Amino acid sequence: MDIKIDSIIPFDTLRTDLEYVFSVVEKNGKVILLKDNKPAYIILKHDSYVVDANITSEAENLTLHEAMKVVLSKADNYTMHASKLADEIYDRRLYLQKNGQKAQYTQIRARCGHYPELFEALQGNYIKLKGV
At CA 73, angle to CA 68 and CA 77, rounded to 5? Predict the structure, then answer.
C-alpha cells in the first residue's frame, strides 16, 4: 500500500477539521488516522477500495460456475449446502456480482440447472460437483 506523507493525519483532526480530512481523501484516495502516534484507522475513497479489493482476490474474473467448481472440488464428498457455498465463494472473493455483493444461494441453485453436466442439485439445497 502506497502511503503519501500528507495522508497521515492525527485522529483529533476529525473533530476539528473534518472538511480537511475529506479533502485529503479526495486528493490521495486514502487517509491514515493516527491515535497515540500509531496508525489506528484508514479512510478510503470508495473507488480506491474497489480497486484494492479486486487486486486481493484469489482468482481473476471467475464466472460463478467456475467459482463453484473451485470450492466444491475441496469440499467433503464434493458437496456443500448452497448457502454455505455462496458464503465460501464470497469470503474467498472468487466471484462477486457487478455491484460487489455476494451471489445469493438461489443463484447458486439456478446455476446447477444451467450446468447439469457439472453439478447435481440434491435434496435439502445441497450442491454436488459431478465427475470428480
Answer: 110
- CATH number for the domain that contains residue 14: 3.40.1620.10
Q: Is the dihedral of CA 34, 1, 52, 89 positive or negative?
A: negative
Instruction: Note whether 84 and 117 are same-domain residues.
Output: yes
pLDDT classification of 93: cutoffs 50, 70, 90 = confident
Return the SS3 of 42: strand
pLDDT band at 2 (very low <50, low <70, confident <90, very high): low
Q: Is residue 69 located within the same domain as residue 111? A: yes
- Verify that 11 and 24 share a domain, yes or no: yes
